[in-house]
Write a structure and sequence with these properties.
It is a single chain. By secondary structure, the protein is an alpha/beta fold. It has 22 helices and eight strands. It is 43% helix and 6% strand. Strands 1-6-5-2-3-4 form a six-stranded mixed β-sheet, with helices on both faces. Strands 7-8 form a two-stranded antiparallel ribbon. α12 runs antiparallel to α13 and α13 crosses α17.
Length: 550
């Protein structure tokens, strides 16, 4: 069973040197020597380490420490690690969001009476060691990190710091409360749709007893409408940077990374994030469902919520969003297809992706089921390509740190699969470019779902399509020098000859997949001469792709 670190509070102590085997639902008394709720004047000092992506209004480590010791005996530490920033190229808009949100969170805690130690340090370890030296706590509490490396690091803290460390369950994901398939081996495929249905049943979301409200589990067929050219598109709310944010912007501008800090206007507090959610409910949820797959040059956000940056750092929590959207349906403020589509993104996709991340483990990073080995083309770092769809999507990602899910899946990942790009390189690009990018979400979403590189454990088929899909769902083709109708030839869209070449190369394997059989049958329309022409042009195009230097 996957260890989500969501079920148990676990104690580590310097003397033990490894995780205690005595798992239980309480916080271990080795650390919390006071009886919870009975704080004395001699309560020992304790520290709470809050990670930058755990900025919860109800932070379990903080609440537990206060209940055990009282607020006056608690010291909060937040660490901004220079090493973590320099580990990979990162979207500067993301760094501004993260550091500004952390500093606003610290200020909020101070206003509530907490002593907060915000540290700029070369590493997390150095920052925590400096905190321990300065404050001399008797123990440390923290909430389990959402990623493998972060959690492994937490498990070394007792020995590093020389004091007991308690790691409490991570409460940012609902699969910590309910695992639909607790004993499923990592290699056994679990279909996201069935996972989603079990989550709906357990949390009683959009349900009529044991059956889905409205008689259908999802409304995909209603949610694939092309965007009318004359449909007005609402803007998402923007938030003027305050003094704290402006200071962060100045710092981040001098850090290595992608994009610019100019124009930063994201929410950086829980109050602003809640206001952004309210704006979505009022102005975009109603039309979200119908046009959630649509793409356009006119605007990046369309009717999408753009809440993932806030959800992924704890300013918002999944169940509060789900329940508010459900109320909007019952109050007659949004249609069922839109509400269900939004709920599915959180309760279905987001929870499923996190579940797969922990179920499959670090081995997922090395998976490459289609034996793809081509380096990432240089235009992924510049957007300089004649393919209009890729140009728009890549430039948005580089400049703004955001594109919506269909652009990520059916433009970027679609191209990556057809072009045989190395999965780890594609994953690294997503991690670098997006404001909502964290390892737990990108690894299973890119390598598993987007590239199908895990052999079907996450998605039952590769998400591949020709230019016809992009033409149907977007206005990108209208401004492109390529012809979306031509299979091959000087003006043929690369998505077309790459698509047909991929089907030719993997015909036998794809034909065996019941979800792709119809696509492969289309090969019967290509005679031997056309097959040869498609394959030759695909090879020439792929050979022309230039990898970045340095």
């Amino acid at each position: 069973m996957a260890d989500f670190g969501l079920r148990f509070a676990t104690d580590f102590s310097p003397s033990a040197g490894k995780q205690s085997q005595a798992f239980n639902l309480r916080v271990d008394a080795v650390c919390l020597s006071s009886t919870i709720g009975l704080v004395t004047a001699t309560s020992p000092l304790t520290s709470v380490w809050i990670l930058g992506d755990q900025l919860l209004a109800r932070q379990p480590a903080l609440e537990t420490a206060v209940a055990a010791y009282g607020r006056d005996a608690v010291r909060v530490v937040l660490v901004q690690s220079a090493a973590r920033v320099g580990k990979t190229a990162c979207q500067r808009q993301k760094l501004v969001l993260l550091f500004s949100a952390m500093r606003h969170y610290a200020r909020t805690l101070e206003a509530q009476g907490f002593v907060v130690d915000y540290r700029l340090a070369p590493t997390f370890s150095a920052g925590l060691q400096a905190h321990v030296t300065a404050y001399q706590p008797e123990c440390l509490l923290t909430m389990a990190a959402a990623n493998w490396h972060g959690r492994a690091f937490q498990h070394t803290l007792a020995d590093r710091l020389g004091l007991p460390v308690t790691i409490l369950p991570n409460t940012q994901f609902l699969v910590g409360r309910f695992d639909p398939y607790p004993d499923t081996p990592p290699a056994q495929p679990v279909v996201q749709e069935y996972f989603y249905r079990e989550m709906r049943r357990h949390f009683a979301v959009l349900m009529d007893g044991r059956q889905p409200l409205g008689g259908q589990w999802n409304y995909d067929k209603q949610n694939r409408q092309p965007l009318p050219a004359d449909l007005p598109l609402p803007d998402i709310p923007v938030y003027e940077p305050d003094e704290i944010t402006r200071s962060v912007m100045a710092e981040v501008a001098n850090m290595p990374g992608l994009g610019a800090v100019d124009g930063f206007a994201l929410a950086v507090t829980r109050a602003e994030a809640l206001a952004a959610f309210d704006d979505f409910l009022a102005h975009r949820l109603g039309a979200f469902g119908a046009y959630e797959d649509a793409m356009t040059t006119r605007q990046a956000t369309l009717f999408h919520s753009v809440l993932s940056p806030y959800l992924n750092i704890g300013l918002l929590e999944p169940l509060e969003l789900i329940e508010a959207a459900e109320r909007a349906y019952h109050d007659g403020r949004a249609p069922l297809n839109s509400v269900e589509g939004f709920v599915r993104q959180i309760l279905g996709w987001r929870e499923y992706i996190y579940w797969q991340y922990w179920r499959q483990g670090p081995a997922l990073l090395a998976m490459n089921a289609w034996v793809a080995d081509r380096p990432l083309p240089a235009f992924f770092w510049s957007g300089e390509t004649e393919m209009a769809c890729l140009r728009h999507v890549i430039r948005r990602a580089l400049d703004q740190g955001y594109t919506h899910h269909i652009e990520r899946l059916m433009v970027v990942c679609n191209f990556a699969v057809l072009a045989g790009l190395l999965p780890t390189a594609v994953n690294d690009w997503f991690l670098s470019c997006y404001v909502d990018a964290y390892e737990w979400v990108m690894v299973p979403n890119v390598i598993g779902m987007g590239l199908n590189a895990d052999g079907g454990r996450t998605a039952t088929k590769p998400y591949i399509a020709s230019a016809n899909y992009i033409h149907k769902m977007s206005d990108y083709c209208a401004g492109c020098r390529y012809n979306h109708k031509q299979r091959h030839g000087p003006d043929a869209c690369p998505f077309n000859f790459l698509y047909w070449d991929f089907l030719i190369e993997h015909e036998e394997r794809l034909r065996a997949n019941p979800r792709l059989g119809r696509n492969v049958l289309g090969l019967r329309h290509l005679d031997e001469a056309e097959r040869t022409a498609v394959t030759r042009q695909a090879q020439q195009f792929l050979a022309s792709l230039v990898a970045p230097t340095g």
